[in-house]
């Protein structure tokens, strides 16, 4: 008589792969660690590129890197050159302005040393003449007023400004326009902004 099949958990062959994985998992847990699945794409995602991790270094990459560094150096040099060019132009402009200021100062000092038998008043135009002896002097009579009887060589006409500087006759109109513009700007009332704070109300009233 055949014996009835025994019920219960099915015994697995200890040599089968499933048993080995289960045993390995149990041993790992006994040791306090956990196993990582040995697959290049865990969860279907590639963590690293096999092409870059397994291939030998490509010499072309080094060439491209060198070219990029060289291009960056060229851009930096060009940018610095442009900035230095602007600074050089500003320095040249300031040097030219400084030279003009010194020239005008020397001219004004020489004109104030010219002989004059009157009190010079700012706002008036004076005419500079030169005698045969070389002496320079100021007069209020213009060459046009002298006519053909002008006794000495005429050197130029200058307007005495209120800062005691001299303006050549050909620049008087332009200089007067600048001064007029500055006067308008200085004479404009400066309105304070309205303020509702009690402390500042008296300033705007």
TrEMBL record:
Name by which UniProt lists this protein: Chromosome 1 open reading frame 50
Where would one find coiled-coil regions in this protein? Answer: none
For molecular function, the Gene Ontology terms on record are:
identical protein binding
Spell out the residue ranges making up region: Disordered: 1-36
Instruction: Say which domain of life the source belongs to.
Output: Eukaryota
